[in-house]
Amino acid sequence: NTATTKEHREKEYVGFATLPNQVHRKSVKKGFDFTLMVAGESGLGKSTLVNSLFLTDLHKDRKLLNAEERISQTVEITKHTVDIEEKGVKLKLTIVDTPGFGDAVNNTECWRPITDYIDQQFEQYFRDESGLNRKNIQDNRVHCCLYFIPPFGHGLRPVDIEFMKALQDKVNVVPLISKADCLMPSEIKKLKERLREEIDKYGIKIYQFPDCDSDEDEEFKQQDRELKESTPFAVIGSNTVVEARGQRVRGRLYPWGIVEVENQSHCDFVKLRTMLIRTHMHDLKDITCDCHYENYRAQCIQTMTSKMNADKRVESPIPILPLSTPDVETEKLIKMKDEELRRMQQMLQKMQQQMHEQDL
Amino acid sequence: MAATDVDIFSNEEKRNLSLGGHVGFDSLPDQLVSKSVTQGFCFNILCVGETGIGKSTLMNTLFNTMFENEEASHYQNGVYLRPRTYDLQESNVHLKLTIVDTVGFGDQINKEDSYKPIVDYIDTQFENYLQEELKIKRSLFNYHDTRIHICLYFIAPTGHSLKSLDLVTMKKLDSKVNIIPIIAKADTISKSELHKFKIKIMSELVSNGVQIYQFPTDDEAVTEINASMNAHLPFAVVGSVEEVKVGNKTVRARQYPWGVVQVENESHCDFVKLREMLIRVNMEDLREQTHARHYELYRRCKLEEMGFKDTDPDSQPFSLQETYEAKRKEFLGDLQRKEEEMRQMFVNKVKETEAELKEKERELHDKFEQLKRMHQEEKRKVEEKRRDLEEEMNAFNRRKVAAETLSLSQPLKKDKDKKN
After folding, report:
1. Do the Cβ atoms of B173 and B122 come closer than 8 Å?
2. A156 contacts in B (CB within 8 Å)?
3. Contact map slice: A 149-168 vs B, CB within 8 A
4. Is the sign of the CA dihedral B44, B50, B52, B58 positive or negative?
5. Domains and CATH numbers, chain A
6. Which residues of A touch B108 (CB under 8 A)?
7. Gap between the Cα atoms of A273 and A262, Å rounded
8. A112 vs B contacts (CB less than 8 Å)
9. Taking the CB of residue A221, how many other CB atoms lie within 10 A of it?
10. Domain parsing of chain B, residue ranges
11. Do residues A133 and A170 touch, judged by C-beta distance below 8 A?
């Protein structure tokens, strides 16, 4: 009897429940890529944090500028790409660094090279996507920008506000409180509240975590809630391993104690790592593709068509579909104009005939 | 005194005499001290650093009191200096302490002019003192000295080096005020990083020629301690007014989940060193340096600007009186010349305007004449036309009369014919 029910079930079973597995297999084979940008003033621990996040040393020999050299420094964009692998899953990680941001004495529009870089990547992708051979498109678009806010102040400074506003529509901005080991727990709480208030007040659009599905289990929902309530994350990074409570952990050694980077009661590093890598990496990529890139593309096309209408000689570098079909009103107008043209043509013909006859 | 008398005295040798007994002038320092204690002391601190770096907290910690102050905002569109004066007393010593805060420093996007308000403030205090000194009736002994004796420059604990703004600002201030650089919020730097950071900062200051205050090593009582402290610059400080129980004591500290940073623990930070140096050992020297070096430099520059010199072209010493008189004459001469110039200008202008007015008058007169002629011409024409019209009317009337008489005689003729 069990054999027949099993056969029966097998007959009913179609098999597309294996799709997730297929997707998983294919994606592992294809590998992933992720581009992370870090921005903030010098000395806030950006490189250290990136090293801590990805457990590698990305900045082996970098040259730090003197104060004198930085007086009129311009912002550079540097890229480091590494291939890392974990349990068979390959990740091509690109870190985009912005040395010089906010370091000069006059920092007017210091975010311009950064927004230009992001736009360039979008433009590159736009061209590739619209080209004829689309087999090997390289996606260099920036998926996430970690913005480091110094913990020494009382909240957002003018340069922070201007930077985030300039980038909010181009990339997912995740603000972080850097070097959080200089703040006591009560001070961290106050600063986070102040930052959330100011971000709201100035209408800055930072990356919002998507709400989890209602059919997730309670533990996951609780985790998700905690994550959302502790933004902006207060992080600490470290390049060194120390001995604490009998274990070897990444941390910072002080005369008065040891700060453990991965201790949740010390800082939000674990939360950041979870969010950035373990749960929301793909969501960041999706929002970049579906939202920021699409905005850029639509804007680009609009400016191109308006330019073309103004100057007929401009060739479109990419194929553009015809505009949407005209509505009833315009169709009527077009018909009327056609009629008029036809009538005038007839009149012209008649006149020509008359002249011809007269000549004869 | 005649010039010759002075010469006699200066040529005499100075002789050291030994005393036969106790005279008592060894109490002079004590007399000086008791006088200055009754007078009270005055000390002015300038705190330069970005908003939120811990300037107010450090002042509270240093002087063990809560100076009232509100949190500053990041959105000032310029740098403002906010001086506040307090009267403190310890034992029987009165201290008039002025703390000057730089509000808005480091917050603007373009910080090229950030140093200017600070330099202007320091210069203004010097200027005020100079004015008082130059007065005829002056009261320097009870003048409230507002000149800045010490500038504490707060460096952010980035761990790399100075910021560009720090370098630029300190270069502008080093010739005007005693600077002590300190590393603020030092509980975010580990020991090894701190060592490297201090070395980097000092080397940057030296290579850019920034002169910071050196604790004096010429007084044997304090040479040793000062020399060792000089090697610990810049001081890495932590400030706190909250008290935490450590062991069986309550100390000022900051409590973290990973430990407690004690402000007065020398292995945690350099706060104690700063307090020693700033208040307990060198406060008087700071005041002296401000007066003898920075103020004198300012005064000399200012007076040279005004044209004063110590010696005239013949290398004879000038007295201030003579220079003053000469300057006054010059000034009055200038004034008179300017007056003449202005008068001349006025006269010229008046002449010009008169000429213009005459020109205009003539034009108007011409126009009037022309219009008058035109009017007469018109009138004549109208007269002619009128006469013509009258003639025509007369002619018409005559013809009418003639016609009438003719028509009257005609019907009689007809009647006559008919009758016949």
Report:
1. yes
2. 74
3. 150-159, 162
4. negative
5. 30-59+67-309 (3.40.50.300)
6. 158
7. 10
8. none
9. 14
10. 38-306, 319-398
11. no
Would the pLDDT of B402 be above 50? yes
Does the distance separating the beta carbons of A64 and B161 come in below 8 Å? yes
| Nearest-by-CA chain B residue for A67 | B164
Per-residue confidence band for B1, with pLDDT thresholds at 50, 70 and 90: very low
Per-position DSSP letters for B370-412, written without gaps between them? HHHHHHHHHHHHHHHHHHHHHHHHHHHHHHHHHHHHHHHHHHH
Q: What residue of A is the nearest CA neighbor of B259?
A: A257
* From A182, A185, A265, residue closest to B185, measured CB to CB: A182
pTM comes to 0.75
DSSP B15-57: -----SS--SGGGHHHHHHHHHHHH-EEEEEEEE--TTSSHHH
Exposure of B81 in the CB half-sphere (CA atoms within 13 A): 22
pLDDT in tens, B181-212: 999 999 999 888 999 999 999 999 999 999 99
Give B168's pLDDT tier (boundaries 50, 70, 90).
Answer: very high
Nearest to A185 by CA among A266, A271, A262: A266
What sections of B163-264 are H helices per DSSP? 164-173, 191-207, 220-230
Mean pLDDT of A173-189: 92
Q: What is the DSSP string of B131-182?
A: HHHH-SS--GGG-------EEEEEEP--SS---HHHHHHHHHHTTTS-EEEE
**CB half-sphere exposure, B220, CA atoms < 13 A:** 0
The type of residue at A315 is E
Cβ–Cβ under 8 Å, residues A47 and A53: no
Q: Which fold has domain B38-306?
A: Rossmann fold (3.40.50)
Backbone angles phi, psi at A76, to 5 degrees: -105, 165
Crossing angle, helix B296-306 and helix B115-134, to 10 degrees? 80
pLDDT digits (tens, 9 = 90+) for A109-161: 888 999 999 999 998 888 888 887 777 778 889 999 999 999 998 889 999 99
What are φ and ψ of residue B113, in 5° steps?
-100, 15
Among the residue ranges A49-58, A325-334, B55-64, the one predicted with the least confidence is A325-334
d(C-alpha B420, C-alpha B417), whole Å: 5
What are the E-state strand segments in B249-396?
Answer: 249-256, 259-262
Mean of the per-residue pLDDT values of chain A: 84
Under 8 Å CB-to-CB from A34, ≥6 apart: which residues?
Answer: A91, A92, A93, A94, A143, A144, A281, A284, A285
Q: What is the dihedral of CA A102, A107, A108, A112, to 10 degrees?
A: -40
CA B78/CA B114 separation, integer angstroms: 7
- Out of A153, A157, A256, whose CB is closest to B260? A256
- B357 class by beta-carbon count within 10 Å (0-12 exposed, 13-18 middle, 19+ buried): exposed
Beta bridge partners of A250: A241
Length of chain B as a residue count: 420
Which residue, among B76, B109, B160, would best test binding to A if mutated, counting the most A CBs under 10 Å from its CB?
B109
Cβ(B58)–Cβ(B187) below 8 Å = no
At B262, give phi and psi (nearest 5°).
Answer: -95, 125
Contacts of A258 in chain B (CB under 8 A): 258-259
Tokens representing B273 are: 């060193």
What local confidence, expressed as pLDDT, does residue B18 receive?
81
CA A65 to chain centre: 29
Q: What interface predicted TM-score (ipTM) does this complex get? A: 0.75
Measured CA distances, A231 to A39, A177, A201, A281, B273 (Å):
18, 9, 16, 17, 39
What's the number of CA atoms in the CB half-sphere (13 Å) around residue A227?
22
* Chain A residues near residue B74 by CB distance under 8 angstroms: 153-158
